Amino acid sequence: TGYPGIESLIDPSYIIKENNWKITNKRVKRIIWAPHHTIAPIGNVNYSCFIQYADFMLEMAEKYQDQVEFVFKPHPRLYTELCKHEEWGEEKTNAYYEAWKTMDNTQLQTGEFVDLFMTSDAMIHDSGSFSVEYHYSGKPVMYVADNIEEQILNKNVLGEKAMRLHYIAKTKQDIIDFIENVVLNGEDPMKQEREQFKQDYLLPPNGKTVAQNMADVLIKAF
After folding, report:
1. Fewest CB atoms within 10 A around its CB: which of 59, 83, 140, 208?
2. pLDDT < 70 positions in the chain
3. pLDDT at position 43, please?
4. Pick from 97, 98, 112: nearest CA to 20
């Protein structure tokens, strides 16, 4: 039927409800940073690179303050996991989140993601579901992982194809290169591949909306 969670991203009649970017200058690019919550592994789920890149991403916001607005879009559980972390705790976590709220070219977003995806230019993340969901936007995306092949082994066919259409950051320099080359300079060699992936795997079948496909299945069953 297609995936109902993202129908707004492919609905041409959808009206954006929230466009809360601080900077209205269209020359300033908009990048989402969406870190996962697994700073401590949960079973075989160990996505998060937050601890390694937390300070660095604030440095990136300062470095590109005239060229990029960054949104910190953490997994909802990251806050509680950081508060429990022996090297972070509640005071440090609150100060870090506050920094993202108050800089001139940054913000903190903890709510829905559809409008954010639609109004962004790119995303940097280490999430699971976002590795597929952001591809509905058609925009360039980077996945942060120093063990990317190990993570891909745990994916199904759809997940693997989605992951391989990410730019991969194994180092901080990789993130700088993504910001400068792909986002700022528009050098995006995977753009056509992402669009083909979207057409082949993500769009709902039969030329219908996800909701209509679901309704047709139910009507036929009844």
Report:
1. 59
2. 41-46
3. 56
4. 112
**The three-state (H, E, C) secondary structure of 24-42, written as one string:** CCCCCEEEEEECCCCCCCE
Three-state secondary structure along the chain?
Answer: CCCHHHHHHHCCCCCCCCCCCCCCCCCCEEEEEECCCCCCCECCECCCCHHHHHHHHHHHHHHCCCCEEEEECCCCCHHHHHHHCCCCHHHHHHHHHHHHHHCCCEEECCCCCHHHHHHCCEEEECCCCHHHHHHHHCCCEEEECCCHHHHHHCCCHHHHHHHCCCEEECCHHHHHHHHHHHHHCCCCCCHHHHHHHHHHHHCCHHHCCHHHHHHHHHHHHC
pTM: 0.93
**Cβ–Cβ under 8 Å, residues 159 and 201:** no
Quick check: 185 and 64 in contact, CB under 8 A?
no
User: What local confidence, expressed as pLDDT, does residue 8 receive?
Assistant: 86
